Amino acid sequence: MKKRIKRISTIFLLTAICCLLSTVVYAERIKDIARFEGVRENKLIGYGLIVGLDGTGDKGRAAVQGIINMLTRMGVTLSTSDLSTKSIASVIVTATLPPFAKPGMKLDALVSTIGDAKSIQGGTLLLTPLKGPDGNIYGLAQGPVSIGGFAAEGEGASTQKNHPTAGKIPDGIMIEKEPLFTLGNGKDIRLFLRKPDFTTADNISRKINTELNGLYASAVDPSSVVMKIPEQYAGNIVRFITMIEKLKVEMDTVAKVIINERTGTVIIGNQVKISPVAIAHGSLAIEIRERPEVSQPLPFSPKGSQTTVVPRTGISVTEQKASLVEIAGVTLGEVVRALNTLGVSPRDLISILQALKASGALKAELEII
Fold it and tell me: Looking at the whole model, is its pTM more than 0.85?
């Protein structure tokens, strides 16, 4: 009885919270929902070699040939037979160059094998140039590789944790060149929304114009807003961007219900509505029990009689009675209260929501992930 009272109290509390939240207007900082033109990341990639492996490197000759070519440029002459093929691995090195990266800054490097190496544990990446999409070198990577796991094997068994053929080099990249970027043209600057929306873009332009007390911003499309730089910020665009980023704007979201059938998770958005509809939902439970019974021969039974095991199977079928329940909801709190009256599990709720969408009563987009 106490557990039931506690459960009812918890449902009532969650419903009350949803009712309160449904009446609150949410405002987000422009910094969190948009970015300025020119403020973006760049991808780097390079081909490298890892040495010092304990017999877990590539079996082919490609990695060895790369080492020989490097040593030749350093004035050392060797042949392919002079090096162990299993102590070297060919890898691809990748990294993400943050906005406004300056020479001397350090980044983490991600290393992944491209050959048949079994593990790069304990290896060291040799100096590797990293190039951008334009073909220019923006960083140099080098250092010991950390795979965050292990791999071991014997003749009859093997064990592994994480992926021993991919690893990371913390602060293993040194930035050598600053990428080109454009932060406005001196007269105006554009703002890009992370999630395009007509209403949100218009709200941003209105908020900026109100703050600057003039017509400085206009929404061009659902994903961008163009702003004229006021005269007082002409020589200090950083201060202008800082002021804009701090402004809070009301966001308009699409009515959406997200369902994860693998985990039974249901997420209902604030704009979701349900038209008046009656629902009857029941479930069928079939339980099968097997109990083995031993049958022994009676005394003085004929020769050759044996003890046997006879299975006894019991089947019970239970079908819950379902009654029609009327549900409807205009706000998030009303929708939660209406669905709670059904008293169903999350997986049953998924079936009900799909049926509501098919009937047209669910006024929202249904997304299954």
Answer: no
